Amino acid sequence: MDKKQHIAIFTTASIPWLTGTSVNPLFRAAYLAKDGRMKVTLVVPWLPLIDQEHLFPNNITFNSHLEQENYVRQWVEERTGFASNFSIRFYPGKFSLDIRSILALGDITVVIPDDEADIAVLEEPEHLTWYHHGKRWKKKFRMVVGIVHTNYWEIVKRERNILVALLIKYINGWVVDIYCHKVIRLSAATQDLPRSVVCNVHGVNPKFLEIGLKTREKQQIRNQAFSKGVYYIGKKLWNKGYKELLDLLRDHQKELSGFEIDLYGSGEDSAQIDVEAKKLELAVRAHPGRDHADPLFHDYKVLLNPSTTDVVCTTSAEALAMGKIVVCANHPSNEFFMQFPNCRTYDDGDGFVKAILKALADEPAPLTDAQRHELSWEAATERFLRAAELDTVPTKKQSKTSSAPLSLASLSLTRKLEDASALVHFVGTGFLSSQPDEEQCKELGLKVPPKKTGFSSGKWI
């Protein structure tokens, strides 16, 4: 190529909020930029101060987006060990208490200039397009790739009801079909979507691989590298695996006599979870949440992760990278981990008991160099480039002409149907979407949008 193509990675969260959709896209941007084949821009939400105070840990807040950018760069450089050679841009956002997520405000495609609009990666494409009211992603960018992080269908089904879940499932498929050329599902635990492939394109924070190397060295010097038994780490929400965990422990207390486990996490359901844990006859100790890389966790031998709502569980990947045994459900969300000998799965309660007892009796197999690479962000970046098929992206906008009349007629009909569907979505979001306030726009150097007076004042783009 005469010039490098631009790839803009849009995501729904940002450091210092330590959630999967802030951490993983940040590492993706860092390693794609390090790869050097493309110019990379990470696009993240900028929140009002009141939302920062509610969301960010340890009372961290920023008076400007430049302060937050410096914090983000320092965070990722400390973990990767190399300079972050990518751009960071911000779009206006707000935190929704109802869905516990950040929502974009206005048309966030304007953050990327038209002459840089080559490839867009939408991390959580359904989330980024539910309320999108602006330029069509496919019109703005020559290629739009969605990466599905969250099993919204399963979460909504558990928290609300099946009818609401079915509606969300339909809307997800609808908006992704309108706005994405290609979709990557991190695991088969997510709903099937148009033009999608299943591939885990996430890696592990390099710090965990470094811990794993030290563990392997200990194992080579002496047979036993771990002095502690079983733990679980995860946000204290019932849908993060705690219900499954406490149910399994309650149902098999006799078979697991003498079993001990430490739970690490904080969250809205902490009080209820701790109360239920104390009812068990087993030794279940509850602790506040901690960073998984904390030295406190180095000596644990077994991570027990019963969650089936994750798409690909980050903590399981981190535990494997540290050289631990991971005991988890035989579920599509864990399929990537099953290639590693230290991953032990179970199908039912009896299998759960057997897997736990065997894990406690065994020593983890030392990770090979090939296994360590498979967990790394270098390998994840290779998988992403293959799955996204970015080598097929045209260097210019696709021509609307074709030499095959039948193909042209079929393509024309498809475009008309998609245009009609997109118009319906545009009209609907004209009433549902929110616009950024003047202060946010000035902070980010964006035009202040006119106040909405109904669709008649809008413009179909």
UniProtKB/TrEMBL annotation:
One of its GO terms (biological process) is galactolipid biosynthetic process. It catalyses: a 1,2-diacyl-3-O-(beta-D-galactosyl)-sn-glycerol + UDP-alpha-D-galactose = a 1,2-diacyl-3-O-[alpha-D-galactosyl-(1->6)-beta-D-galactosyl]-sn-glycerol + UDP + H(+). Residues 219-335 form the Glycosyl transferase family domain. One of its GO terms (cellular component) is chloroplast outer membrane. Gene3D superfamilies: Glycogen Phosphorylase B. It comes from Nicotiana tabacum. This is Digalactosyldiacylglycerol synthase 2, chloroplastic. It is found in: Plastid, Chloroplast outer membrane. Keywords: Chloroplast, Glycosyltransferase, Membrane, Plastid, Plastid outer membrane, Signal, Transferase. InterPro entries: DGDG1/2, Glyco_trans_1. Its EC number is 2.4.1.241. It is an enzyme of class 2 (transferase). Pfam families: Glycos_transf_1. One of its GO terms (molecular function) is digalactosyldiacylglycerol synthase activity. PANTHER family: DIGALACTOSYLDIACYLGLYCEROL SYNTHASE 2, CHLOROPLASTIC (PTHR46132), DIGALACTOSYLDIACYLGLYCEROL SYNTHASE 2, CHLOROPLASTIC-LIKE (PTHR46132:SF9).
